[in-house]
Amino acid sequence: MSASAKLPPFDAADPLGIDDLLEPEDLAVRDTVRSWAADRVLPHIADWYEKGELPGIRELARELGALGALGMSLTGYGCAGASAVQYGLACLELEAADSGIRSLVSVQGSLAMYAIHRFGSEEQKLQWLPRMAAGEVIGCFGLTEPDHGSDPAAMRTHAKRDGDDWVLSGRKMWITNGSVAGVAVVWAQTEEGIRGFVVPTDTPGFSAPEIKHKWSLRASVTSELVLDDVRLPGTAVLPEVTGLRGPLSCLSHARYGIVWGAMGAARSSFEAALDYARSREQFGRPIGGFQLTQAKLADMAVELHKGILLAHHLGRRMDAGRLRPEQVSFGKLNNVREAIEICRTARTILGANGISLEYPVMRHATNLESVLTYEGTVEMHQLVLGKALTGLDAFR
């Protein structure tokens, strides 16, 4: 570019020009999901959050299915076959509305559907994936237990053969979508090792009481799964995987969506703080004109858009088939931590108004406290990276 060429204007919403990295199809996906969230979620989310409920979740799921947002990076069986970057952009826009909405989509597509798509039989795929992609059936993913979160290898849920059948018993905890799901992917100990099972939730012995009294992810359905001698046919087991490789690969796919989603919550909080700083007056002028406020906004913008760049980079690696689990841990560890800090700083700019549900900041901040520890705590991702860097295993 010649020295005399005219530079594009500075865009406060995209200060690094990251949109230049996106294809028209990417932008179309982003704008479609953003428009849906603005119409269907944002007018109601404060009320849903305050009441601790997500009314009309089945209708929302069908609408998300019509958008192609459920299992959108999977191919075939009614799935959209979108790129990893497009899926990431959708996660960012959904979490900019609320983490609970993004969690609904992540658990449906990146955990339950992904497990069936990657490890299921052709019969299982045909039975479940088209209806799940359409949002006609909601899925959940049963791995975490009351006493075993970061150490799933020690799970107590077990499955035993009984003739041609399997009989499952155990409990799972903190399961998104559990009490509204029509199908659950449940992981259990067997004589052969850890296996995954596709469990219709109307099977006798299966129940999913909803967990109440949450102060985070309030606009999300969270449940316990209780399996009391649940009898399943031999065809219910996922045939293509044995061991922890199965559930951990599903978690890695879901964590990738979190890398993007956390930046959506951060963006929403940053935009609220920026708008507030431009209009809120103290000492005779907008607080955005004071140096300390500008320093906060500058630091928030730097971390926000660094995080989006990191998410974009990981998305391109996933699309090229080169994304490693350690790199996903890198992204989740950084982006969720920075998103929380952005929300906290935004709260200081809004002052007392920052704790009000009239603004999104405190809602995002409390939601992110859950995102910080689900699908891998900070400590677990630090140890994943520590092992990758040193070659030494510090988990035990």
UniProtKB/TrEMBL annotation:
It comes from the Bacteria. InterPro entries: Acyl-CoA_Oxase/DH_mid-dom (IPR006091), Acyl-CoA_Oxase/DH_mid-dom_sf (IPR046373), AcylCo_DH-like_C (IPR036250), AcylCo_DH/oxidase_C (IPR009075), AcylCoA_DH/ox_N (IPR013786), AcylCoA_DH/ox_N_sf (IPR037069), AcylCoA_DH/oxidase_NM_dom_sf (IPR009100), Glutaryl-CoA_DH_mitochondrial (IPR052033). Residues 140-230 form the Acyl-CoA oxidase/dehydrogenase middle domain. Residues 243-389 form the Acyl-CoA dehydrogenase/oxidase C-terminal domain. It is an enzyme of class 1 (oxidoreductase). Residues 24-136 form the Acyl-CoA dehydrogenase/oxidase N-terminal domain. Gene3D superfamilies: Acyl-CoA dehydrogenase/oxidase, N-terminal domain (1.10.540.10), Butyryl-CoA Dehydrogenase, subunit A, domain 2 (2.40.110.10), Butyryl-CoA Dehydrogenase, subunit A, domain 3 (1.20.140.10). Keywords: FAD, Flavoprotein, Oxidoreductase, Transit peptide. The keyword Transit peptide applies. GO terms for molecular function: oxidoreductase activity. Its cofactor is FAD. Its EC number is 1.3.99.-. This is Acyl-CoA dehydrogenase. The gene is mmgC3.
